[in-house]
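hey m, so remember when u said the tokens were messed up on ur end? i reran from scratch. heres the input so u can diff it against urs
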Amino acid sequence: MSTLNNPEPITLPVFIERTKSFGPILLHHLKSHAITWILLVSLYGVIHSNYRLAINQTPSLPYSLFLICLDKKVESGGLIAFRWHNGDPYPDGYTFTKRLLAGPGDIVTKKGRDFTVGGRTLVGKEVGLSLKKLFPNDELHDGKNTIQLGKYFVAGDHEYSLDSRYNLLGLVDEKDVIGRAYPIF
């Protein structure tokens, strides 16, 4: 009779007795597959120290899954992954992926709520998809702005993307950058 369908709770002595037979089986498995396990753990360590995966949960970019290369230099036009540290509506440390439009020394022109970066105009919305009021980025003044060292102007491809146009995100600090993101799908 099987003990799997037994409704009686398992006692500590029964649990210990059952695990005694599992120990030798596990030890035999580890001995016979030690090289495989060492290689798998080493491979995981190498991959985890250089790469991460990120999931896009909003329509800000047309991709859903990203491979992030840690500490890789991101060029303008490429995708950048960074940590969120601005409070609600996202938890601290949440990974964001956006397009890097301007880095240190690049020019961003602000006109009211709208921003022009490298010939691309980003229209600032008054109300976001969450129906909350959006305030324009106050780190940049009306007219031409040169992005200072250690800061990045990022944006999504969707017109309602939460990005550097708005005070809620603002310019991204270099210390918050995780690395370059590559779309998987």
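this time it looks ok to me. The CA atoms of residues 109 and 116 lie 5 Å apart. if urs says something different then somethings off w ur setup not the seq
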